[in-house]
Design goal:
By secondary structure, the protein is an alpha/beta fold. The chain is about 25% helix and about 30% strand. The longest helix is centred in the N-terminal third of the chain and has 15 residues. The radius of gyration is 22 Å and the shape is globular. The N terminus is likely disordered. It comes from Acinetobacter chinensis.
Length: about 350
C-alpha cells in the first residue's frame, strides 16, 4: 500500500507536566484561539485504559482529537504512537498539532523520537512546554521527584499554572528554579486558568549540542590520529552548549566511592561558575551537592543511578576553565577499590 506523505511541515507542540499540573486546562485555552479556517489536532496519552481528558476538549468541527490509552507513549508506546501520529497528519492534514503525554511520561524520549530524520519533512517541532503547578513549588516532597525534574530539564518553555495562588515560599522556589534551569528554558510564563497566548509558546525547538566522550585523561592516552572510542558504559565526560551557557559534566559508576571532605574541598575551590550540581557515593553516604553563587548546599541523599557532577558556566568563561584539572581532582577523591 502506498502512503502519500504530506509535503508541508506541521507545527508540533509537546505539552508535558506532572500529574495535575494543568496541562489540559492550558490545552483548552490554546485550542480556543484556533483561527476559523484552520484545522488543529491533538494527540493525547492517558496512563490508564479509560480516557477522560478527550471528553474535556472541543468536539466541534475544526478539531481532531486522537487518544492513546494504556502506558506511556514516551517509552513503551513508540510504535503505536508513531502510527497514530502519522495517520493523524496524513488523514486530517492539520495546520497545528498538540501532543499531551501522560503526567507520568518522559518527554525527553518522546522528543528524541520526533526529531528523528524521517519526521523532518512532516514535523516542525516547536519548543517543548512543561506545565508546573506554581502553588506546589514550596512542597519539597513534590518537587524532589525524579520525573518532575526530568520534565523540567527537557523543557524550553515553562508555564507556571495557579500563579494567583502562589505563596512567598512558592515565589522563592520559582526564583531558584529559574536559576537552576537557566541553560535550557527559553521562557517562563505565569498563567491563571491556562490563559496564555499561542504566540507565547510558538517558538522553535532548539536542539542542545551534546558531546559525550571518554574521560579526558583517557583521551590523552590515545594516539593523535586514533578515533575516540564509542561510549557504551561509564565513566564518561560530556559537554553541552545551550542559550549562551556551557555545561561540563562527568558520570562515574555507582560502585565508585569518594572521600566526602576531599570532594567538598574540590568543588568549593572552583571559580567563575554559575551552578554546580552533583550526587556522589561517599564515605559519609550518598551526598547531593547544589551550589549557586549565593549558597553552597550539600546534604545526605538517596542512592543514585551513578556518581555525577555538572558545572554550568557562561560560554565566554568555558574557554578558560581547565576541565582536565577538575577531572584530575575529582578522580583523586576516589577511594581506591584495592
Amino acid at each position: 500500500m502506498k502512503i502519500n506523505l504530506s509535503t508541508r511541515q506541521v507545527p508540533v507542540h509537546i505539552i508535558s507536566g506532572f500529574l495535575g499540573a494543568g496541562k489540559t486546562t492550558l490545552l483548552q485555552s490554546l485550542l480556543a484561539q484556533k483561527p476559523a479556517h484552520e484545522v488543529w489536532a491533538v494527540l493525547m496519552n492517558e496512563f490508564g485504559q479509560i480516557g477522560v481528558d478527550q471528553q474535556l476538549l472541543p468536539q466541534q468541527s475544526g478539531y481532531e482529537v486522537k487518544e492513546l490509552l494504556g502506558g506511556c507513549l514516551c517509552c513503551v508506546g513508540q510504535l503505536p504512537m508513531q502510527i497514530a501520529l502519522s495517520r493523524l497528519i496524513q488523514e486530517k492534514q492539520p495546520d497545528r498539532l498538540f501532543i499531551e503525554p501522560t503526567g507520568l511520561g518522559h518527554p525527553a524520549q518522546l522528543l528524541e523520537q520526533l526529531t528523528e530524520p524521517h519526521w523532518s519533512s512532516q514535523i516542525n517541532m516547536r519548543a517543548l512546554i512543561c506545565v508546573v503547578d506554581g502553588s506546589k513549588l514550596h512542597d519539597a516532597e513534590w518537587t524532589a521527584q525524579d520525573l518532575y525534574q526530568d520534565q523540567l530539564k527537557t523543557s524550553e518553555i515553562v508555564v507556571v499554572s495557579h500563579a494567583d495562588s502562589m505563596t512567598d515560599a512558592d515565589q522563592l522556589q520559582l526564583t531558584q528554579l529559574k536559576q537552576e534551569y537557566m541553560t535550557g528554558v527559553q521562557s517562563w510564563i505565569m498563567s491563571e486558568q491556562g490563559n496564555i497566548s499561542i504566540d507565547q509558546i510558538d517558538l522553535p525547538h532548539s536542539a542542545v549540542e551534546r558531546k559525550i566522550v571518554p574521560l579526558i585523561h583517557v583521551q590523552k592516552q590515545l594516539a593523535p590520529d586514533e578515533p575516540l572510542p564509542v561510549i557504551k558504559q561509564l565513566p564518561y565526560h560530556y559537554v553541552e552548549h545551550s542559550n549562551g551557557y556551557t555545561v561540563a559534566g562527568w558520570k562515574f559508576s555507582k560502585s565508585w566511592s569518594f572521600r566526602f571532605y576531599d570532594l567538598l574541598d574540590t568543588l568549593c575551590e572552583q571559580q567563575d561558575w554559575l551552578r554546580i550540581k552533583g550526587i556522589f557515593n561517599t564515605d559519609q553516604g550518598w551526598m547531593t551537592f547544589n551550589f549557586n553563587p549565593e549558597q553552597i548546599n550539600y546534604k545526605l541523599g538517596e542512592e543514585g543511578l551513578d556518581n555525577r557532577v555538572e558545572m554550568i558556566v557562561q560560554d565566554q568563561q568555558a574557554q578558560v576553565h581547565d576541565w582536565e584539572a577538575l577531572e584530575t581532582a575529582l578522580l583523586a577523591c576516589r577511594i581506591s577499590s584495592v
